[in-house]
Design brief:
The structure holds 2 protein chains of 2 kinds.
Chain A: E1 3-7, E2 10-14, E3 19-26, E4 30-38, E5 44-49, E6 56-58, E7 61-66, E8 71-76, E9 85-93, E10 98-101, E11 105-110
Chain B: E1 4-7, E2 10-13, E3 19-25, E4 31-38, E5 42-51, E6 54-57, E7 65-66, E8 76-78, E9 87-94, E10 101-102, E11 106-110
Parallel strand pairs in B: 2-11
Antiparallel strand pairs in B: 1-3, 3-8, 4-5, 4-9, 5-6, 7-8, 9-10, 9-11
Classes of the chains: A mainly beta, B mainly beta.
Chain lengths: 111, 111
Amino acid sequence: EDKVVQSPLSLVVHEGDTVTLNCSYEVTNFRSLLWYKQEKKAPTFLFMLTSSGIEKKSGRLSSILDKKELFSILNITATQTGDSAVYLCAVGGGSNYKLTFGKGTLLTVNP
Amino acid sequence: EAQVTQNPRYLITVTGKKLTVTCSQNMNHEYMSWYRQDPGLGLRQIYYSMNVEVTDKGDVPEGYKVSRKEKRNFPLILESPSPNQTSLYFCASRPGAGEQYFGPGTRLTVT
């Protein structure tokens, strides 16, 4: 059975801190790993990673994938209160390219 | 505007009264899915469809039905809703192996 585990489950930081969110996976026939941000609504897409070692970056957010060790990290630098959200990791695999989601990391950024 | 739409957004119903949640996408995506999201359990796939007339069970299909008669539409049917189907439901679509887009969500309460 495919499995995606995110850690920590929740995290509280102060504005300006840097955070690292983790996602490890066990998926048959890995195809890609996706990160989403979910506030009080639908998840919104952040990154899709398919190759090891290539960092994807968007503003203060960046992510990298390690296909040998089966994990990814999402970094957020200089956090802001608007970064408070649940961050979801999803891994696509198998013959039908099913996306399996982790339970998410709840990030709270305090002023 | 590229989007996934769902209706209704909120629904309160009674046990046993059949209901349908509609989902439509305007991006010509082949792949569509339904998820439910529950506290502590994350996003779980109910059913998915890889193309017109091709549907298959996800992780939690019991009590649900779907159909895919047209590429853009993927309704979720609850023939006899029960209180354990109270949840937040998301429809999603993607172009094969690409980024997945989510609808705005339907909050269903079954009393």
